[in-house]
Design a protein that fits this description.
Elements: H1 3-13, H2 31-37, H3 43-51, H4 56-59, E1 65-70, H5 87-101, E2 104-109, H6 115-125, E3 131-134, H7 141-152, E4 157-159, H8 160-179, E5 189-192, H9 196-207, E6 215-219, E7 222-223, H10 233-236, H11 247-251, E8 256-259, H12 268-272, E9 279-282, H13 292-298, E10 303-306, H14 321-330, H15 338-351, H16 358-364, H17 385-399
Parallel strand pairs: 1-2, 1-3, 3-4, 5-6, 5-8, 8-9, 9-10
Antiparallel strand pairs: 6-7
Keywords: Metal-binding, Oxidoreductase
Protein name: NADP-dependent malic enzyme
EC number: 1.1.1.40
């Protein structure tokens, strides 16, 4: 067993199995305390909530509580390993919600037979939470699941692998293109993968200025083109009318490679074929589409990002989901709409251009960091992400009419 593997297993096993726990937030020492916390006192908020469900935000933890829900069908890039095996990742997301945004979070792994059964399970428990973060649910089912749950639930529902990934990818990519002196409207983009993350990333890039016809998407069967008869409706949106069939065909002169597929699918020979000053985001976790060492050894003019914490430019939805939920919950948004997503992109992008505080340098192991090839996107442990991104999202929610309460005091000042 490698040293790192053992360290990772020990981290999860000791001193107590798992990564999250529940703590109580009110005194519960005396009979007097218990008479308030439990019987008879608890009956009072029960009556208040029965009279008006909004009172759940006043008298329970609902407003600060996010459910992280998975069925384990697309656990990182490891594939469909089932609900229980997804639990460490879901606990990990809960850890990140708490660590970065102070949000309480519980992981829920759902075993189900049909897509409708999954939807009904989540719908049935949704009112318990302030928001629902769907995680690691494979395409194409994830699209129907999210669409249905948004319609059926009274709280925001957000599939992190779609939109969290898209927001961070868009922020990082727009900055990278700026560093490389390129215009997103003209960039030729290759997207390896045609699932949850891929479809959402490319749709958001189009909203940010990319041209649909400049995007070449690939799945396990190669380039997605109009003559294929095996495409689901989501892949079909990216079918190019082209004779190009292979990665080699589409990567030639491409400005951007976005990998949201699986490990080691981008060979060095393909990297050599890209246009001058390319951008490669190899976002598959835990193992990227190409190892940064290999990509950098192949050419020296690229901006390289991965989904991992141990290389520069971590393009990972951790930069988004804690903060977008913080902003959404703080104004009790009914949904997380495009305006809020674009506001998050802009806030994340802008932060990368500011001087990096010493505490961030120390936490990320750098002597200095400056906007450029090795720093196109903020570090997850940057404490400015929380106020900046959450505020931008909350303001966008208010302005786009999905907030149910006014902007809180602490969001008022610029
Ligand atoms: N860095 C980040 O923040 C994030 C990274 N990701 C990564 O993106 C990847 C996909 O996740 P997600 O979209 O949720 O999963 P999905 O199961 O929804 O989609 C996976 C897609 O990848 C394609 N794919 C898998 N292996 C290959 C391969 N060898 N060659 C070409 N295409 C391949 C599949 O092709 P087909 O349709 O033919 O089966 C499918 O289109 C994972 O590796 C995940 O770790 C995801 C979210 C966030
Ligand atoms: C980061 C993440 O959500 C994933 O790889 O699935
Ligand atoms: Mg995920």
């Amino acid at each position: 067993m490698t040293d790192f593997r053992q360290k990772a297993l020990d981290y999860h096993a000791f001193p107590k199995p798992g990564k999250i726990s529940v703590e109580i937030s009110k005194p519960a020492e005396t009979a007097k305390d218990l008479s308030l916390a439990y019987s008879p006192g608890v009956a009072e908020p029960v009556r208040e909530i029965a009279a008006d469900p909004e009172n759940a935000y006043k008298y329970t933890a609902k407003g600060n509580l996010v459910a992280v829900i998975s069925n384990g069908t697309a656990i990182l890039g490891l594939g469909n390993l089932g609900p229980l095996a997804s639990k460490p990742v879901m606990e990990g997301k809960a850890l990140l919600f708490k660590r970065f945004a102070g949000l309480d979070s519980v992981d829920i792994e759902v075993k189900h037979r049909t897509t409708e059964e999954f939807i009904q399970t989540v719908e049935a428990i949704a009112d318990t939470f302030g928001g629902i973060n769907l995680e690691d649910i494979k395409a194409p089912e994830c699209f129907e699941i999210e669409r249905e749950l948004i319609e059926r639930c009274n709280v925001p529902v957000f599939h992190d692998d779609q939109h969290g990934t898209a927001i961070v990818t868009a922020a990082g990519l727009i900055n990278s293109l700026e560093v490389q002196g390129k215009d997103i409207a003209e960039a030729r983009i290759v997207c390896m993968g045609a699932g949850a993350a891929a479809v959402a990333c490319m749709e958001l890039l189009i909203k940010c200025g990319a041209q649909r016809e400049n995007i070449y998407m690939l799945d396990r069967n190669g380039v997605i083109h109009t003559r294929r008869d095996d495409l689901n409706e989501y892949k079909a949106l990216f079918a190019n009318n082209t004779d190009k069939r292979t990665l080699e065909d589409v990567i030639t002169d491409a400005d951007v490679f976005v990998g949201v597929s699986g490990p080691d699918v981008l060979p060095a020979e393909a990297v050599k074929l890209m246009a001058p000053n390319p951008v490669i985001f190899a976002c598959s976790n835990p193992d990227p589409e190409i190892k940064p060492e290999l990509a950098h050894a192949t050419r020296d003019d690229l901006v390289m990002g991965t989904g991992r914490s141990d290389y520069p430019n971590q393009v990972n939805n951790v930069l988004c989901f804690p903060f977008i939920f913080r902003g959404a919950l703080d104004v009790r948004a009914t949904r997380i709409n495009d305006e809020m997503k674009v506001a998050a992109v802009d806030a994340i992008r802008a932060l990368a251009k500011e001087p990096v505080p010493q505490e961030v340098l120390v936490a990320s192991g750098y002597d200095s960091l400056e906007f450029g090839k090795d720093y196109v996107i903020p570090k997850p442990m940057d404490p400015r992400l929380l106020p900046r991104v959450a505020r931008a999202v909350a303001v966008a929610a208010v302005e786009s009419g999905v907030a149910r309460i006014a902007l809180p005091e602490n969001y008022m000042q610029d």
